[in-house]
Amino acid sequence: MNIIREVSAMRAWSRQKRAEGKTIGFVPTMGYLHEGHKSLLSASVQETDATVLSIFVNPLQFGPNEDLDRYPRDEERDVAIAKSAGAEVVFAPTVEEMYPNEMYTTVRVPALSAMLCGASRPGHFDGVATVVSKLFHIVQPHQAFFGLKDAQQAAIIEKMVQDLNMDVRIRTCPTVRESDGLAMSSRNKYLSVEERATAPELYRSLEQVREWVEQEEWPIGEILQKWRDRLQNMECAELDYAEILDYPSLQQPDLNLKMKKGQHRWIAACAVRFGQTRLIDNVLIGTHAKAETVRQTGGNAICI
Ligand SMILES: Nc1ncnc2c1ncn2[C@@H]1O[C@H](COP(=O)(O)OP(=O)(O)OP(=O)(O)O)[C@@H](O)[C@H]1O
Ligand SMILES: CC(C)(CO)[C@@H](O)C(=O)[O-]
Ligand code: BAL
């Protein structure tokens, strides 16, 4: 397996693969890989001829008081995981290689970037859309794989690709969870023992919200209130947001609405702070919600 650090070498590799008639699959990450990333790699290896994993902690998507400097890194371990998952290339450029000049160009998807994580992390999704656009130009993939844990990010990338006629197919993959339901995330490593014990409450509350919505008994506004009350009562945690929105448009539904089976495609999404650590999670509710979660049970993944 190759480790490529230069943009020109990455482009040359991709050009060569394309000339050989091979399809390229791409999994963009910030590294510190876990089972969620592995599931994206395995989808790519299954569906394309050659898989590229990128590891790049992108400064452009971090706010001034966020965790850019302490973001967990372990390239050696990541490379071993990528290799055993069947990736052909790890693209791991330096910040100077990706941003040799002052950036005057920003890719922005305003209609989907202001709400949810965009409200608490101003500019975050501009940084994401810009770096993903650059990575697509460098890696030139046929397909790129994103996790539904970052559902807003996936919606933004799909819209960017559609609006800018980018020649890449976006594949979104289910959220991989620990056996107690906590969504896997590189940032879980920051949690204290006490916070880690509380964190599965996010997913438990999301399952409850899905049940409430599907029971068709209460309007969305009432469910939101009950859900926020529950999250505000969590030990050692502070609620950032809890919203039910249409997905992928991220528009707010009429809060007086009850769900009608087969008519809605909603997302319930939340973010909670445990001290300095901010975790996100979501579930899809309605016609698009099939098998959107994978739970790890002692190494065997099951879709639910
Ligand atoms: N639990 C998960 N299941 C499926 N995909 C995931 C999961 N966690 C992350 N991903 C996906 O992996 C890709 C890279 O994400 P990233 O490297 O930021 O990992 P992360 O664990 O989400 O890190 P962070 O803690 O920074 O949120 C994204 O497409 C993201 O949605
Ligand atoms: C897509 C991404 C790799 C862009 O930096 C990042 O936002 C992530 O890891 O989800
Ligand atoms: N997975 C999202 C990347 C970030 O939090 O910056």
From TrEMBL:
Pathway: Cofactor biosynthesis; (R)-pantothenate biosynthesis; (R)-pantothenate from (R)-pantoate and beta-alanine: step 1/1. The keyword Nucleotide-binding applies. It is found in: Cytoplasm. Its EC number is 6.3.2.1. Pfam families: Pantoate_ligase (PF02569). The active site is at H37. Keywords: ATP-binding, Cytoplasm, Ligase, Nucleotide-binding, Pantothenate biosynthesis. It catalyses: (R)-pantoate + beta-alanine + ATP = (R)-pantothenate + AMP + diphosphate + H(+). (R)-pantoate binds at Q61, Q153. NCBIfam families: panC. Belongs to the pantothenate synthetase family. This is Pantothenate synthetase. It comes from Marinicrinis sediminis. The lineage of its organism: Bacteria, Bacillati, Bacillota, Bacilli, Bacillales. The gene is panC.
